[in-house]
Amino acid sequence: MMDLKLLFFSVIFLCTSQLFAREKSAPKPNQRKDVALVTNKEELLFNNRVFMEAKKPKKKVVTATDYDIPDDLDQDSGGAQKRDEELPTCLLCVCLTGSVYCEEVTPDMTTVPALPKETAYLYARYNKITRITNKDFADIATLRRIDLTGNLISDIEDGAFSKLDNLEELTLAQNRLSKLPMLPAKLTAFNAGFNLLKTKGLKATAFKKLTKLAYLYLSNNEIEAIPQLPESLRIVHLQNNNISSMTDETFCKGNNTHYIRYNLEEIRLENNPVDLAKYPQSFICLRSLPFGLY
Ligand SMILES: *[C@@H]1O[C@H](CO)[C@@H](O)[C@H](O)[C@H]1NC(C)=O
Ligand SMILES: *[C@@H]1O[C@H](CO)[C@@H](O)[C@H](O)[C@H]1NC(C)=O
Hints:
Blueprint: H1 2-24, H2 31-54, H3 71-75, H4 80-92, E1 94-96, E2 99-101, E3 121-123, E4 131-132, E5 145-147, E6 155-156, E7 169-171, E8 189-191, E9 215-217, E10 235-237, E11 266-268
Helix pairs in contact: 1-2
Bound molecules: 2-acetamido-2-deoxy-beta-D-glucopyranose (2 copies).
The site of one 2-acetamido-2-deoxy-beta-D-glucopyranose (NAG) has 2 residues, from loops.
């Protein structure tokens, strides 16, 4: 705000001084050009500032030794205990109220970092995390979104997410998962595209139980059968898998021709072995046909 005021006054000053200058002496032909030039420069500066403010804060890159809390910080009295908990993660990552951004962290991040209390949004994309344990999120019931895209995760302990009662969006895309852990009940969006999932790695009712799930992304895996889908689902992506068949019950209710599945608006099944033309009865409850091979 201060800078804006300053800018405003300097522009006014420039304009008036130019005006005086022009009144005093006879206007020279190139003076008008000068005013335009100066104004443009100011404008440029102003635009640049606004642009820079809109950008995300840059993360700090620190060396491995900084992972430990420096001694001089321990001497700081006010809220020292809080600092003890939060500093290591918030040195490597950017912590803003409720959000933690740990993207492409150097040195390599191979485990989930200790999170500040009350964290609601965690973005830990493009790191080298290999494993998620039951302890990683145990104390952070406030989490609403976790994004672990582009790590090396091949193993997730079964209870790692199951008790996160506020978790709405979970993204595990681009990892090395061959099976999924238990998913928390309030999920609305789940993404495990680009993994190594097979049908035997999915619990039969893993998704059906999630009564708020609206977006399910499982493309680019090795899934052989369409999983049971909850009534709340709006979009399901299963392209680039190994699905070779389906039944009249997959999307619809085979014995009830009056049933209409209102919520489900997009089904993607391209690049699967299944020939959808063989299952005309499977789509009668849908408002639009799945994308795929006919
Ligand atoms: C796809 O499924 C078939 C059996 O239906 C199996 O023989 C084949 O190995 C699977 N391919 C992949 C890439 O998993
Ligand atoms: C329709 O099928 C469902 C299971 O798919 C079953 O519970 C129900 O009893 C069947 N209804 C009739 C009228 O056959």
